[in-house]
Design a protein that fits this description.
Number of strands of chain A: 8
Structural class of chain B: alpha/beta
Helix content of chain A: 10-25%
Radius of gyration of chain A: 17 Å
Largest sheet of chain B: 9 strands, mixed
CATH topology of the largest domain in chain A: OB fold (Dihydrolipoamide Acetyltransferase, E2P)
Shape of chain A: globular
Number of strands of chain B: 11
Largest interface: A-B, 34 and 37 residues
CATH architecture of the largest domain in chain A: Beta Barrel
CATH topology of chain B: Peroxisomal Thiolase, Chain A, domain 1
Order of helices and strands of chain B: EHEHHEHEHHHHHHEEEEHEHHHHEE
CATH class of chain B: Alpha Beta
Oligomer: heterodimer
Order of helices and strands of chain A: HEEEEHEEEEH
Strand order of the largest sheet of chain A: 4-5-6-8-7
CATH architecture of chain B: 3-Layer(aba) Sandwich
Helix content of chain B: 25-40%
Structural class of chain A: mainly beta
CATH class of the largest domain in chain A: Mainly Beta
CATH superfamily of chain B: Thiolase/Chalcone synthase
Distance between the termini of chain A: 42 Å
Shape of chain B: globular
Number of domains of chain B: 1
Number of domains of chain A: 2
Number of helices of chain A: 3
Chain lengths: 146, 421
Amino acid sequence: MEERPFNDTSYEQFLNERKIMGSKCKKCGDLALPPRSICVSCFSTEMEWIQFKGTGRLAAFTGITVAPPYMAKKGFGRTNPYVVGVVELEEGVKTVARIVGVDAKKPEQIKVGTPLKAEFLEKGEGPDKQISLAFKPYLSISSASG
Amino acid sequence: MTRKGKLSRGVAVVGGGLTKLGLFKDRNCKDFFAEAFIEMVGSVDKGFDPKEIDAVYVGNYSNDFFVNQAHWGPIISDLIGHVPKPVTRTEAACASSAVAFREGVLAIASGLYDIVLVGGFEQMSRRTTEEVAEGLAMAASPYEVAAGFTFPGVFGTMATAYFAKYGADREALFNVTIKSHNNAPLNPKAQFPMTIRDFMNARIERCRKKGEPIPQWKDEKDFLRDPIVNPPVAWPMHLFDCCPISDGAACLLLVAEEIAKNFMDNPVYLAGMGQGSGYSLHAKKDLTTYEATRAAAKEAYDMSGLTPKDIQFSEVHDCFSIAEVVHMEDLGFFKPGEAYKAVAEGLSRLDGPIPINTSGGLKTKGHPVGATGVAQLYEVWVQLRGKAGKRQVPKPNLRIGAAHNLGGTGGTCTFTILERR
């Protein structure tokens, strides 16, 4: 499908094109996200690209109130916390990402298992523009918080 | 038949030293290591000449970042009069010095050396809290950092997975914090030698002096529920779930088993040790277990021929309260999903059946990351020598203790079992 190397750089390039791309081992079918150049199940190096649908469920999360400097610069911190989590995708692999569309000030109300779908967050301007992966609840707000 | 999994020669621990832990901006790692070294030399019952040390292995995570000085091996070699003999620095984040210990053991077991000094040190106090957090995050996985995770955030994430799977909650983790702080005043080297009750009384006293309303907490848990004194850091991790920023150093003297009695009549021997590696969060098959700890434990139990039931007490890496609980399960002390109940029942108290973190743990003793692995083993060594004073494990015939050390967010874990014969 694509002649790009199976590495982190390609993963980020695809994200900037709003695609969640990982690798599938041609020999054993093992999936990896971000992509791997070596299959850690059978050690094959024959890979193909697979595009993930971007739907899944929340496997675990945290609400960050003491933010690292690069998030603090964006205004996050004690009075404006944010949520990150582990998302188990429909295809069976997990990824880590920002979780948006939830109340970061009430983390006790966020439920593991909440259905999520991918959201592409833009950061930076012009040629520096980058896309990072986030997820948000995709059922109605009432069912996500209930 | 191969000998895989067994050492070719036994190793004994015959000396040890640990600084008081805390924040000491006006001193540096040379001062810390010298303090630990001097205690170590004095602790060898029959005495020894430091000139006899064949090689030195020291763990240090990131003084490169914390104090802008790398290549600490030769600095320590010069400090203790070891030049021109070899010194090696190991780095495995918060498990840096447990790995130094392991390298020292392997060097003796191989027959290359007879007498090896192992140790570790870190100075974190010269950076701001935000900078230290950034420095520590360098030891997380690049994917986690890019997504906005912090170190406490990774452990908080594992806590929500654990809660969802086993029905535990924040209150269950309060028991870990209260238990560790109960041991703290018994350790003269602890950074925070205070029980939670001591913190409550100090706060009440402060309010009284300032003429502010006196807080009305029912008990320790009520105090820990109060977001004013225990604010969130990374849900569900709050301030009192997190270990402090610390400075300090520790060292141990290792010798070949056959010469151990030249140093002391009743040496402590290495029974087994193991080391494992672990995945980033997204690649973990199970978010409620540390595969690196399980691998390390299996290697150590197999080497020693011991089982979890044989371990009479253990230091367990408690950088965050949830880590202590999950590791107690991964080390086989309790079944998955049972450790938080065991802590609530008091089973891990100093006077319980399996005392965990008699030193007060990283939470109260302090966590100068590069020193921690050896500092934990120092505690086990002191306990097995019966010299732990007020925090001595009250068991007759105390013979087998262990230490578990974690690096990063679980990328490196070690488990080491020591025994008195």
